Amino acid sequence: MILDEMGIEVLDFDANSALLLGSLPFYHRDPFDRMIISQAITRKYKIISVDKKFKLYDCELL
Predict the structure, then answer these.
(1) 3-state secondary structure of 60
(2) Please, are residues 31 and 10 in contact by the beta-carbon 8 Å criterion?
(3) If you placed Cys at 53, which of 26, 28, 46, 59 could pair as Cys (CB 3.0 to 4.6 Å)?
(4) CA 3: distance to chain centroid?
(5) Each residue of 40-59: pLDDT tens digit?
(6) Does pLDDT of 1 surpass 90?
(7) In this structure, what is the dihedral angle of CA atoms 22, 26, 10, 44, given to the nearest 10 degrees?
(8) How far does Cα 15 stand from its chain's mean position?
(9) Segments of 1-62 assigned E as strands
(10) Segment 7-31, tens digit of pLDDT
(11) DSSP code, position 58
């Protein structure tokens, strides 16, 4: 698969991320960005973004 060759991991949106998503404050209205934030928090991943609203959440930014 091309993604494997490129070293890209596709993340499933799991139950832990979904539960956290439901409790996140609505600083950010974009549902996909909120999903990224909840995945990053539950998996302890860092996010690369220039979106200033991401700073309002308890996630690590680069």
Answers:
(1) strand
(2) no
(3) 28
(4) 19
(5) 999 999 999 999 999 999 99
(6) no
(7) -80
(8) 13
(9) 46-47, 60-61
(10) 998 999 999 999 999 999 999 999 9
(11) S
